[in-house]
Amino acid sequence: MEYESKHLDHLGIVAASCDEIGIVEEIDKAIPPDPRQRLTVGECVKAMVINGLGFASRPLSLTPQFFSNKPLEILIKPGIKADHLNDDVLGRAMDAVYEFGCTTLFSRIAYRAIEKFEIDTSCQHLDTTVMQVHGEYTNQAEIDPWTGDEGQTLISFGRPKDGNQSLKQYLISMIVTNDGGIPMLAETIAGNKSDKKHFRETLKKLKKELKDNDQETYHIADSELYTEPNLPELVSSGIKFITHVPAKIKETERLKLAVKKSEMNKLRKGYWGYELCSIYAGVAQRWLMVYSDQAYKREYTTLKKAIKKEQEKISKALYKLKAQAFSCEKDAIKAARKIIGSSKFHSIKTYEIKSKNTKTGKGRPSADTEVKKEYRIQAGAKLSISKIKKARSLKGKFVLATNDLEVNKQGEYKLCSEEFLDLYKDQQQVERGFRFLKSPLCMTEATFLKKAERIVVLGMLMCLCLIVYAIPQRQLRKRLVETDKTIPNQINQEKQNPTLRWIFQIFEGVEILYKNLNNQTEMLVLNLDNLRKKILELLGFQYQKIYLCTS
Predict the structure, then answer these.
(1) Angle, alpha carbons 483-485-491 (nearest 5°)
(2) What secondary structure does DSSP assign to 249-283, as a single string?
(3) Cα Rg for the chain, rounded, in angstroms?
(4) Where are the beta strands (DSSP E) in 144-294?
(5) How would DSSP label each residue in 410-470?
(6) CA dihedral in degrees (230, 231, 237, 242; nearest 10)?
(7) Contact of 364 with 375, CB cutoff 8 Å
(8) What is the model's pLDDT at position 452?
(9) Fewer CB atoms inside 10 A, N or C side of the chain?
(10) The whole model's pTM is what?
């Protein structure tokens, strides 16, 4: 009798999620399998997603090593060995995905999941994030996934919005649902592409793709969406937006200075709001100025540090100024004003000018040596109460905008101020998704690919990992609420909103034992305790099938 064990751990949950979403079927429908290959493109993608969510932090070239001690007949299909998942096989699969179109293929999978799990898509959050890479890249031209036109170079130095020109990078753009943070659309785009233009293009294309969808939808993005060229085009395309009004627009500063917290209505705990109508870029819209207690505390602390830093800087500059000689009083005063006048929080307190006769030339002066008068200034600065008061009154406030002006029978806006604020705050859904993509949980260490085309595919694979992660997390939380059950967290508190990462950790140590007797193999699942069985029951049949069919 021979025994062998392999690690299943949480990978069965990942594989079950892939199966439940239908990733393999959707990809193989789009890219027909080659009968000469052991693995279809869909099965290769599934393997890469399992690897990507395997807590391994390995490049894709080490996929065979990752699967060497994993039960591939359960995770992928019978008859597959780790060596079958080599560089060439996965590389060909990635090339086939790129050739078909990453954005199109991703959208098909995402919409299949959204339809199957009845995910609410009425609120969609859009943003981009930077992904850094190293090395040289060829064939870098970005192809527009909607039109097929060649665009900017994919791998670029720097990015307009952060000004850092020292790192090579590309961008991942995502639209995620408010319900569960499920990605609906994902693109890998040029590293120096402007969010302002990209947001406008993406929403217009998305609206065109969904022209037969009558559902009322809010598109939510940060202040990069709010520009004079963007707003009229969005409105003409029938897009409802919720966004942050940039602080550089003068009207926002005037509004923040004019309206005090005492004049606002309480929206939520720690939040107050003041609403008004506005027209910007020819678009009628509602503005909601929000005051946040938490934001005020944070920003006021930053303000005090800035004041202290400026005070130290001015003190050093004025000390050096004392030793500087000027040819006239006017120049001395001008130099002092230049130091203090450019400050944000200080003004001139006092200044004293002293003059002194000096003789020009080298050596011991003679009686007829020319005498020259020089001036030195000693200035003092003081905190400007008016400047500080103005700066303080701006803290904790921000302005939101929407073009949703619909009213109900009572003449009130259908989208009330409280919901307006809540929808914008849920922009963290897409930000949370980006944190996931950059965390060790996802395949961030895999960005060692040499071809830019495969970088595009890698971006899609990372976003697929997010779908595979987010769907079971949403379903588990939903079932816990529906059945009024709980799961203990890391400190043994009963909760109904566990993260899937924690569930993955709970499943560490689940093994498959292979018992070989008389050329027949029996499989047993080890370490499947009551808590793990409870979680599998809540997740559903697809998950139980993987873990329980062999126990």
Answers:
(1) 160
(2) SHHHHHHHHH--GGGSEEEETTEEEEEEEEEETTE
(3) 31
(4) 150-153, 156-157, 168-177, 183-189, 218-221, 240-244, 265-268, 271-280, 283-292
(5) TS-BSS-HHHHHHHHHTTHHHHHHHHHHHSTTTTGGG---SBHHHHHHHHHHHHHHHHHHH
(6) 110
(7) no
(8) 78
(9) N
(10) 0.83
